[in-house]
Amino acid sequence: MSIAEDMLDGLLCCGCGVYIGKNGEGPSYCSDCKPPTKSIKIEKTIKCPMCNKRFKKQWDLDQHRKDVHG
């Protein structure tokens, strides 16, 4: 068998190739390479209408507008 086949069969970690021995269970990852199960959080930003710079908080935008744009 090849390394790729062993990874697909679950014998080797799909991330680093270390032996994990889960034969026949399909592709698996070891505890060090396990991909995150949480979805990536996309933070909403507020855009300055004058210069298009983006801010995470309204207060930061207000301060920016006061300091930079007068």
Characterization of this structure:
Strands 1-2 form a two-stranded antiparallel sheet. Helices cover 26% and strands 6% of the residues. It is rod-shaped, with a radius of gyration of 24 Å. It folds into two domains: 1-31, no CATH class; 42-70, Double Stranded RNA Binding Domain (2-Layer Sandwich), CATH 3.30.160.60. It is mostly helical.
Which secondary-structure class do the elements indicate?
mainly alpha
Helix content: 25-40%
Poorly predicted regions are none
Strands of the widest sheet, in order across it, are: 1-2
- The number of helical segments is 2
Terminal-residue CA separation: 69 Å
Radius of gyration: 24 Å
The overall strand count is 2
Biggest β-sheet description: 2 strands, antiparallel
Secondary-structure element series? HEEH
Count of distinct structural domains: 2
Anisotropy-based shape:
rod-shaped
Provide mean pLDDT, rounded: 85
Beta content comes to: 5-15%
Pick out its properties.
2 helices, Double Stranded RNA Binding Domain, 70 residues, mainly alpha, rod-shaped, single chain
Sequence-ordered SSE layout with sheet pairings:
Elements: H1 3-9, E1 46-47, E2 54-55, H2 58-68
Antiparallel strand pairs: 1-2
Question: Outline of this structure?
Answer:
The chain is mainly α. It contains two helices and two strands; from the N terminus they run αββα.
